[in-house]
Amino acid sequence: MSFHISEVLKQFVRKHGLEQEILAQRMPGYWATTVGEKMSAISEVTSFDHGTLKVHVAKAAWRNELMLRREEIRTKLNAQIGNDVVKEIIVR
Question: What is the model's pLDDT at position 37?
Fold first, then answer.
């Protein structure tokens, strides 16, 4: 019986409950790809924990823009990730 290395790694990650940590590490990249270069330059992913993505934006105008678009962005993030893992986006 042989296993492909990717399956062995997936089982290891699942067994040790590391999915959340891996997603948290990858989230800034997913964010940048989803919102684009301009929005990514003015925002920063500060954390991702149990479905809640927290993003910091220094300027109020951009913060408002993200607040208005957060559901659209959440949907696009989940599509990019391939799973419904982002439940809420908090912009501060």
Answer: 95
Kindly report whether the global pTM for this prediction surpasses the value 0.90. no
Q: Does domain 5-91 have CATH number 3.30.300?
A: yes
Q: Which residues contact 47 (CB under 8 A, 6 or more apart)?
A: 24, 53, 54
Q: How far apart are CA 20 and CA 61, in angstroms?
A: 31
Residues with Cβ within 8 Å of 35's Cβ and at least 6 positions away in sequence, in order, are 43, 66, 73
Residue 18 neighbours by CB under 8 Å, 6+ apart: 12
Segments making up each domain of the chain, as ranges: 5-91
